[in-house]
Design brief:
This protein has 198 residues and is of the alpha/beta class. The chain has eight helices and six strands, in the order H-H-E-H-E-E-H-E-H-E-H-E-H-H.
């Protein structure tokens, strides 16, 4: 996604390595995390038949077929996120996101050792990385009965929506102890909400 610091860092790494190898790089991406915006970009890029396409698919289902088609003429490398069946890709580069979700719960256990209610704020369903982070968190939370998991809600990469979710959840659960945000934009909650003592 254009404007996301994570992907800006990734772009810098790609450009630096491409310069060392004498390869030409073109970077394109949607303005929002939306498969309807990414699909036409994939189709346009695939039509030029580049040697390789490095992509973070923003939906496990919607990008499956377009990337399978692109892989007929270009080597496809999946970075960060994936699709339902990535067998067409020559490589996948990703973190252990289930482990990351479990690590987030461990951090909450350390910060709030007495237990209590916990909330997850995610981007949207269908994104492999954050789906796995939620799964890892939920599995870890289920093993510790001192915490009550109040569920996952979706902010759609909108910090203002994440703030609304926290505010609404605090009204329903004023004893909320912790929030796990699965990505940068879900974590950008204004200080008056996030500074509430736990």
């Amino acid at each position: 996604m254009i404007g996301d610091n994570f992907y800006i860092s990734m772009e810098c790494g790609v450009r630096d390595t491409a310069a060392e190898l004498g390869a030409e790089v073109s970077v394109q991406g949607p303005q929002k995390w939306d498969p309807a915006l990414q699909q036409p970009i994939v189709a346009s890029v695939a039509a030029t038949r580049p040697s390789a396409i490095l992509i973070a698919p923003n939906d496990v289902s919607a990008l499956q077929r377009p990337l399978e088609e692109a892989a007929k003429d270009s080597k496809v490398v999946l970075v960060d996120t994936t699709v339902e069946d990535p067998s067409f890709a020559v490589s996948e580069i990703a973190s252990d996101n289930i482990g990351g979700g479990a690590a987030a719960f461990t951090a909450i256990q350390q910060l709030v050792p007495g237990g209590g209610k916990v909330l997850v704020i995610d981007n949207q369903p269908g994104i492999s990385t954050s789906d796995d982070r939620v799964k890892g968190f939920e599995e870890a939370a289920a093993k510790d009965g001192t915490y009550e998991y109040v569920g996952v809600q979706y902010a759609k990469n909108q910090p203002a929506e994440a703030a609304n979710i926290v505010t609404a959840t605090l009204q329903k659960h004023p004893d909320l102890k912790a929030v796990f945000a699965t990505n940068l934009f879900s974590a950008e909650v204004p200080r008056p909400v996030s500074s509430r003592p736990g």
